[in-house]
Write a structure and sequence with these properties.
By secondary structure, the protein is mostly beta strands. It is built from no helices and nine strands. Strands 2-1-4-7 form a four-stranded mixed sheet, with no helix packed on it. The chain has a three-stranded mixed sheet with strand order 3-9-8, with no helix packed on it. The structure holds copper (II) ion. The site of copper (II) ion has 7 residues, from loops.
């Protein structure tokens, strides 16, 4: 008799599941935040915009192209309405001239070959003489014109 000793290999698989518990210790360092308080004081200038009252005479700009040459202004008569802002674009053609209108505080020297802007408010009614204010030759004294404010 063959004694087969069957030794049952009892493989006991003891699966020990060891739960690997890793403990993470988080050290939270709470720092008091350094708060720098910058106080910016902004002064806002609230511009009080005074809207030009349009209750008075209608404000309009009357623009004229004018030339100055020996010895005349062309045109030599300018007619506007009282209250108008008058803008003259005066082109000096030949030699140095000037443009003076004392009643409205205007006196400008003109430059040869250039256009000079003269602006004023015609706030008075009447007929006013403007003239060349820079000696420009024999006919200088006759180099005048009229501003008519109606
Ligand atoms: Cu002149």
């Amino acid at each position: 008799m063959a004694n087969n000793f069957l030794i049952p290999a009892l493989i006991v698989l003891a699966v020990v599941v060891s739960g690997c518990t890793s403990t993470t210790t988080t050290t939270t360092t709470t720092r008091a935040p350094q708060t720098t308080t910058t106080t910016i004081t902004t002064t806002t200038n609230v511009a009080t915009t005074t809207t030009a009252a349009t209750t008075t005479t209608q404000v309009s700009v009357k623009e004229f192209q004018m030339t100055a040459s020996q010895w005349k202004f062309e045109p030599n008569t300018v007619t506007v309405k009282q209250g108008d802002t008058v803008r003259l674009q005066i082109q000096d053609i030949d030699v140095t001239h000037g443009f003076s209108l004392p009643t409205f505080g205007v006196n400008k020297q003109l430059e040869v070959g250039k256009t000079t802007t003269v602006e004023f408010v015609a706030d008075k009614k009447g007929t006013f003489t403007f003239a060349c204010s820079v000696f420009c030759g024999t006919g200088h004294s006759s180099m005048t014109g009229k501003l008519v404010v109606e």
